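hiii so my PI (J.) wants the whole complex modelled not just the main chain, which honestly fair. so below is everything: two entries, each one labled with what it is. i double checked the lines twice but i was tired so who knows lol
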Amino acid sequence: MTLRDKAWSPYAAGILIGLLQIPAFLLIETALGTSSSYVTIAAHMAAFADTSVSKMDYFAKHMYGAKNLWQVAMVIGIVVGAFASMKMSGARRQTISPVWNRAVGFRSLSSRAPMAFAGGFIMVLGARIADGCTTGHGISGVAQLALGSTVAVTAMFAGAIATALLMKRV
Amino acid sequence: MNILFAVILGLAMGAVFGIALEKSRVFEPGTIVSQMQLRTFLMLKVFLTAVVTGLVVLAVLNGAWGVKMFPKALVWQADIVGGMLLGVGISIAGACPGTVFAQIGAGYRDAWFTVTGGILGAMTFGYLEPALRPIMLSGGPGKLTLDQVAHIPFWAFALAVAAALAGVLAVVERFKPWREEAGPDFDGLAALASRPEHSTPASLSSASA
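here's the output for the full assembly
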């Protein structure tokens, strides 16, 4: 298992992700999560055009402070880590995944882009309504035995499975 | 807390997270859609292994040293409606809110549109939040956890759930080995030739291509 491998066991990778809870809980005093970083970025972008954003409670509490900036730094770190990992193994990717041709018949970026945009919009809107995503509710919430997270993760898989089954077999 | 320290730690933790997402191939849209069509179980393996590890880590941190935990509140409408929308979005995006950043790093160009859509989704929610709060984001029993409901110490319940989930993973791996699920191009997709409708009868037995 080295950085030159194109794939690691999902169990090794899962353990590595789970161990990230140690610095999260001990040093940042929060659980691992990724979807509130979208609010931090959105709030700062909205603040360019709308000065009232910093007076709106939900935006305001996500704009500054160590926990919010830690999470934004972490998602940037994910880009860097995945890029380095891909470079070292040579697992170069095409413009879009071949799964989109199999599932919905899209072969080009221009046909796939509106679908990706809509998917991202619904995904993060849902995550913010539920107050967490696959990481915050899933990996962190279930590991804390939180009842709300168990409900949210069950609903998430139900929605995802129902949607994927409407696509063609991949 | 020192902001510079938090940012540097965030970048370092993100780099480890990004490597784990890329090497496990769970960031692949093919892995996500195949999982949600219940054809492969690679995403479930990474996800549940991270949960099991987290359960053991928190059983020790909380059970031995009393480290504070941060469970989210149970709000039925928000968890069900939000969770389902999140799931619908995950299958359309072929990503989760965290793994889409690994897609950008690995070179998928549509991931930039997914992130842009996600930022606009967060912005939309931020503006709707004051109106949604009274009707679906509040009420409910609060930060309820399973160990509280069952009156069992957290560490004991956590280790029991970890053991049960590890058992589930062992059974799944026995029937669906991960090396085959990653696919020949490591994109979470089986070779087309290995699928019955694309192959001649003679090649049906080579499903693991």
